[in-house]
Amino acid sequence: MEIDEAVIRVDNHAEIDEVEPIEISDDEARRVRLYENFYQVNAIDPALYAQHDVKRGLRNADGTGVLAGMTNISNVHGYVMSDGEKMPAEGSLRLRGYDLYDLLGDLDPTRRFAFEEVAYLLLMGELPTQERLNRFVEVIDSQRELPDGFTASTLMVDTSPDLMNMMARSILRLYAADESAEDRSPEHEIHTALSLISRLPRIMVLAYYAKQAAFNHESMIMHRFVPGQSTAETILSMLRPDRSFTAEEARMLDIMLCLHAEHGGGNNSSFTTHVLSSADTDPYSTYAAAFGSLKGHRHGGANHQVRAMQAEIKENVKNWEDDDEVASYLAKIVNKQAYDGTGLVYGMGHAVYTLSDPRAVIGKRFAEQLAAGTEYEAELNLLKSIERLTPEVFAREKGSTKELCANVDMYSGFIYSMMGIPEDLFTPLFACARMAGWAAHRFEEIAAGKRIIRPAYKNTIRGTKPYIPIERR
């Protein structure tokens, strides 16, 4: 056992010193000027991409993805191609051939949890029988223990202000505790994946409280996990100081884990998983790299931008039920006069989905049930207004005819906030769920890829420059 006590609280109000700012000497400042031309040195004329038909971001000119592989894991569908034109379509997400709406859309209230079943489907390729699901849940439940001293040596020493960084570092630390870390056999690959699916939620909560203690001078709370609880229950039980949560909250979190579990091989973090797996590196290095990708503001980290923008709208729109007032502020955002000046309405639009994102549709449906009759109902209605009005605002202000739909981030942060889950955990929760999808993609790359991923880059410098000795430069 790593920790015997049920709850450990460490008050750090007196023990932690204020962080001293790093002073930069005049000599260091002089040397830093070497980087003043960073962007000029690394710039490439955008016209060259079109001239050489380079697929920037592995995207075609119409925004569709470059076909780079085959997969049996999932299908993300958001448009159809007709006579070479991209035509909008209702979004669908199929996991191993099963439509997300069938898996989650009308979830039987008597079946409280689905994440473990979705994880089984992704890893094993088929829906489980009740007996197989029970065994699968037992295996996940049995893996939650961490190596002796792990929390103290990994999470409470050199604590990072970013939880995604701490979780990625924890995965690499677990490599050191695995005597068979370099084993590439199916048995070890599956064992490693299941152990991380089991342990990452616990690591996430412990990392959160380590950060709270180190940087916010709050108590370090370390609850023991409760054997037999689902992944969603384990997270809420460990996170809440009093360990209490409602069945509705656990079911809502379970749905969110399912929505984030998998989204195709082309998304950045899953493609990262394919790239590292194709190089025949170990699973721990692969999954740590996927964490680094998901952390990015253009990927999983986008949910922070969504909530910050929504907070600004809530503060500046006096009457949330007035469409004209909401649309007026959205117009300011679109015209780069409000929020971050990018002209983007975060939470709207997707690289694949055009008319709808099924994850947002399902998330909103369950959010309506949880918010009904509560103080959150008005905010949910505001978000629905943003979703409805944004395409109209873009059409009016920019003359844009592009189809825009709400993506999963429009409602995910709001749902977590309803449950009192701190924003620090939004992206880590995403990662805990996506671990199942990453593992499925790694398995597929090992079994079917058989070739290191190495796309080509066009060099912009023609010919060879004559070398000039240093004394003559």
From TrEMBL:
<dbReference type="InterPro" id="IPR036969">
    <property type="entry name" value="Citrate_synthase_sf"/>
</dbReference>
<dbReference type="GO" id="GO:0036440">
    <property type="term" value="F:citrate synthase activity"/>
</dbReference>
<comment type="pathway">
    <text>Carbohydrate metabolism; tricarboxylic acid cycle.</text>
</comment>
<dbReference type="GO" id="GO:0005829">
    <property type="term" value="C:cytosol"/>
</dbReference>
<dbReference type="Pfam" id="PF00285">
    <property type="entry name" value="Citrate_synt"/>
</dbReference>
<protein>
    <recommendedName>
        <fullName>citrate synthase (unknown stereospecificity)</fullName>
        <ecNumber>2.3.3.16</ecNumber>
    </recommendedName>
</protein>
<dbReference type="InterPro" id="IPR016143">
    <property type="entry name" value="Citrate_synth-like_sm_a-sub"/>
</dbReference>
<dbReference type="InterPro" id="IPR016142">
    <property type="entry name" value="Citrate_synth-like_lrg_a-sub"/>
</dbReference>
<dbReference type="GO" id="GO:0006099">
    <property type="term" value="P:tricarboxylic acid cycle"/>
</dbReference>
<dbReference type="InterPro" id="IPR002020">
    <property type="entry name" value="Citrate_synthase"/>
</dbReference>
<keyword id="KW-0808">Transferase</keyword>
<dbReference type="GO" id="GO:0005975">
    <property type="term" value="P:carbohydrate metabolic process"/>
</dbReference>
<comment type="similarity">
    <text>Belongs to the citrate synthase family.</text>
</comment>
